[in-house]
Known about the structure:
By secondary structure, the protein is α/β, with parallel strands linked by helices.
Amino acid sequence: MAAERLTRTAPPVGVGLVHLGLGAFFRAHAALYLEEAVARFGGDWGVLGVSLQSPGTRDRLAPQGGSYWAVEMAPEAETARHVQIVQDVLVAPENPQAVLDAMAAPGVRIVSLTVTEKGYCHDPATGRLNLAHPDIMHDMANPLPRSAPGFLVRALAQRHARGLAPFTMLSCDNLPENGRVLRAVVLELAAQISPALADWIAAEGRFPSSMVDRIVPATKPQDIARIASLTGQEDGAPVLHEPFRQWVIEDDFVGGARPDLGAVGVMMVRDVTPFEHMKLRMLNGTHSALAYLGYLAGHETIAMTVADPVFADYARHLWQAEIIPALAAPDGVDLHAYARQLLARYANPAIHHRTWQIAMDGSQKLPQRLLGTLAQNRAAGRRCDGLVLAVAGWMIYVRGTDLAGGMIDVRDPLAAALRAAATSDDPVGALLAVQSIFPAGLAADLATDLRAAHARLLAQGSRAAVRMVTPGDGL
């Protein structure tokens, strides 16, 4: 007998937050904090989700009234939680005006984003808005936008015209100083449309930076079937997550309007930058390094990768010798203890976080995850053979074939250009010439070492090349 379909049981909550990019991460992370804050203190802080591309999430959530199961995957057991903070989901390409009207509603005080690095339509190497991006070109000329910055600017224009205060714009993406990046692209786009609007946003808008941390693997069909057995209800859109979670937010909101997130475990701080750098470089940096080199070694998931002692030693080496020396620890944080905690999280056998999934969109991720640390180490005269090898692994990955000649489905906004460069006569030189990824000075400095690492991977394979750069540093 088939399980009955999951349905909403909680009463509706007024919408106070619109979220752009209603993917699994937001639903497994921020949504849970928001629901806990509303449960404890009330308030109209329901979430209206917006899918900026496809209707898939909306179509799966709609029969369930927007509710879903969030399943915590600890090594010893799984625990399911019925989440009901999402009130509705709009699909932007179907009706962009409806999205703008929702964002311009007086009750909406926060618009948050998880649109991934590429969703900011910026140059990752400089942080500037890419005015040649097709969606940005469209949004400068048309009142109904396509991009996340476009929706923010056009919705703010509606609010300005109606005499309403702007909403707070809260980035939850893995970008260093994500609030500053978001502010820069919004103001640059607004200035192209209306300098007066840009001045108003600059004076009245707020763009707090935030740091988010929780491992959320992609949900697979077999997960959906297992969760139906666990809960007795069919859910077309469950999310999976590890037990650990962290959210650090700069406490800078328009008019101070926000739910009491601090009371449910969110760290509200004056400056999130040290936490961002710690997480982006220690977690996301090693995640990317393990993803490229682990994938090339035949490991499907991060847990499988660090179960291989060569790769576990590699992660320890990166933290000990190459990443921690380039970091300033947030107050009260022991970076070595944080590294040990990360390795334990990676090793959780219940979390099937695929190396292929983490490897996506590398052109947008490398600057903040790996290259910033590389640049600091090189400037300080420190060797960083492990990080160089990770970049070389990416260079092989984006050519579209693995070390055994098997095909790789490379997902990246620059995939075609990267593949052409990576399969040229001088793949390292051609990829280093992509200035939206590699600043010219760093590219010139890394060229010799990257060519050697690239050649070593091709000659010896990933596991053997990794073993050569891990002298057994302990944590």
